Amino acid sequence: MSAGGTLHGPWPFSGARGVAEWLQRNTIVVLVLLLFGFIAIVEVSRPGTVNAVWLSNTLLFAAPLGLLAAGQTLVMLTGGIDLSVVSIATGSAFLMTTTALRFGDGWAVLLGLSVGLAVGLINGVGVAVLRVQPLVMTLGTGLMTQGITIVYSQRILATRSVVPEFIHQLGSARLGDILPVVLFLWAPIAALIIFGLARTGFGRLLYAIGDNQEACHLAGVRIWRVLLADYVVCGLLAAVAGIVLVGHTNSADLSLADTYLLPSIAATIIGGTSIMGGRGGYSGTIIGALILTVLNGLLTLLDSPEPIKQILYGAIIFLLAALYTRLTD
Amino acid sequence: MRQVARLWEFVLRHPAPVGMPALLVLSLAATVAIHPKFNAFDAQSLAMAALPLAFAAAAQAVVVISGGLDLSIGSVMAVANVLAAAAMENTGFDHSLLLAAGIIGLGAVMGAVNGLMIVVSRVPDVIVTLTTGFIWGGTALLVMERPGGGAPEEFLTLGTGSTLTPWISNSLLLLIGSVAIIWLPLRRSKVGLCLYAVGSDRVAAFRSGVAIGRSRVIAYMIGGLFSAVGGLGLTMTTGIGSPRAGVLYTMSGLAAVVIGGVSLLGGRGGVVGPVIAAFVLTVVPADLIFLNIDPNFGQVIQGTLIVLVVMVGGLVALVRSRK
């Protein structure tokens, strides 16, 4: 069950039903097939597109989404959701770029990350200690963060905003023209999350809480500590995503990460993490983020006008989610 | 003394119906205190500014009561807004009323499509309405790429003028009228009861013979209907159609619903609380302008207000459970 780690069960060569059942238990296989399907469509519609540079571009574009969706995955595993991730990402990128000249690059990055820490902490206190519904809590902190970012931007109109050079390198450079530098950040984080979810007590508790909070409580788990840490980690990952994103675009504006809210949730859902919690994992989310990035590239490639692109994007994500729900129900 | 205690208990038990009007009166009093020259014109522009948000809040409230969530409300408003501005530009008043009726019907259809997609596909409502938000948003852009269009003067007066007395603007009457015509009969009817039943406990409702799927679709349909009226309100108050104007009403509307005392768990609250909350959320930034404070603080206050309201609510529940 779920898109995590190893494949389950032997390959049952017993007709179509057997195959369907095996696929239900190993949804990651379906996801990878889907990803290859989309890549094939890209290659068919514009022959010669898919090459090493295209692949490296796809990874580069997928990285901010993958990092944003990482936090979303960790939160959704406990049955929560975080609507404030995009505001955190924009806010941290904005604070970093506007303080880089004054305090130096290193401090600016830390200040950027502190936005994620602070908002994550507020989210955590609300959800974990005061048992506020995650959706409401993160809606409020999201609006708050966005508002503060706007007010802050008006206060410092005169300040020059610069993206630190190494952040710009991190977000857009490639080693040997092929290997995106951002992978050296994303891959270790991904490995840590996948390992942490599968092998550490904290990771297993996230699943347990998402599965049955009452049982966890009776088993003596201090749920609030786990949830608090979870939301703080999610906030930090969102801040990292924002910093990577601004390194990619090389200029911070107030709507930097706005368009990432649906993709961050969709990548997680398509990747097989249940919005009810207790089921899923980060490896699926990575594939989900890649699928969405390829899809976005495909729509750009087809040169469809913006409205059509938006409608198709929404419709295809819905169909993927519906397909997934059908498969796992 | 005992009466005071009893009154206090009543307030605690019904925080929204008592608290919301009190909050509105308080914020209006604050406005008058800050801005002593507050006159009929100010009252009118306030009601105008609150109109679209109030409808967005009403739309979200109906859906949330039925145990759902609609993140496409702003996009449905945008579709209604641009359709009205595009179709009414060179028409007469009677014609524009006919078009308005059609657009409201279309809003109901869009809402019903949202509901059907959720019920049939069994994909969580958050995901479905996020994606339909993209779809309706794209549709709005398809109708009108950049802000433009218009509507006959008489039609705009429905939202901007004040035909009766200067203090009671048409937009206020429109709002009260719409809620009274759409929501109040519904709430008293069997369908309304079903909405509350489905929202508070789906399994119990199912076992009592409530058609779950149908009730949920109806909730989204009414949500779409209110959203369309809100989109028309946008056309009336701004005079044009703008494909991206509706977007911010999704989150603000949800904020008004939360502050207005509707539980996101479903089955609780009404439409009036969120509508009043929409007014409070409009008054506060206006006060900031009067105070010469950056009106962008409005959003900060909106967010902080939600966070505080729900955190205090959580704290109260926590303290009670410890007793």
Concise description?
The complex is a heterodimer of chains A (329) and B (323). Chain A has 329 residues and is mostly helical.
Please characterize this protein's 3D structure:
The complex is a heterodimer of chains A (329) and B (323). Chain A is mostly helical. Chain A has 14 helices and two strands, in the order αααααααββααααααα. Chain A has one domain (15-328): ABC transporter involved in vitamin B12 uptake, BtuC (Orthogonal Bundle), CATH 1.10.3470. Chain A has a two-stranded antiparallel ribbon with strand order 1-2. The longest helix of chain A is centred in the C-terminal third of the chain and has 27 residues, at 223-249. The model of chain A has no long low-confidence stretch (mean pLDDT 88). Chain B has 323 residues and is mainly alpha-helical. The longest helix of chain B is centred in the first third of the chain and has 29 residues, at 93-121. The two termini of chain B are 24 Å apart. Chains A and B meet through α5, α6, α12 and α14 of A and α6, α12 and α14 of B.
SSE map:
The complex is a heterodimer of chains A (329) and B (323).
Chain A: H1 15-25, H2 27-45, H3 52-77, H4 85-103, H5 105-129, H6 134-155, H7 165-172, E1 174-175, E2 179-180, H8 183-199, H9 201-211, H10 213-218, H11 223-249, H12 261-270, H13 282-301, H14 306-328
Antiparallel strand pairs in A: 1-2
Helix pairs in contact in A: 2-13, 3-8, 3-9, 3-11, 3-12, 3-13, 4-5, 4-6, 4-11, 5-6, 5-11, 7-11, 8-9, 9-11, 12-13, 13-14
Chain B: H1 2-13, H2 15-34, H3 40-65, H4 73-87, H5 93-121, H6 125-143, H7 153-160, H8 170-188, H9 190-200, H10 202-207, H11 212-238, H12 248-259, H13 272-290, H14 297-322
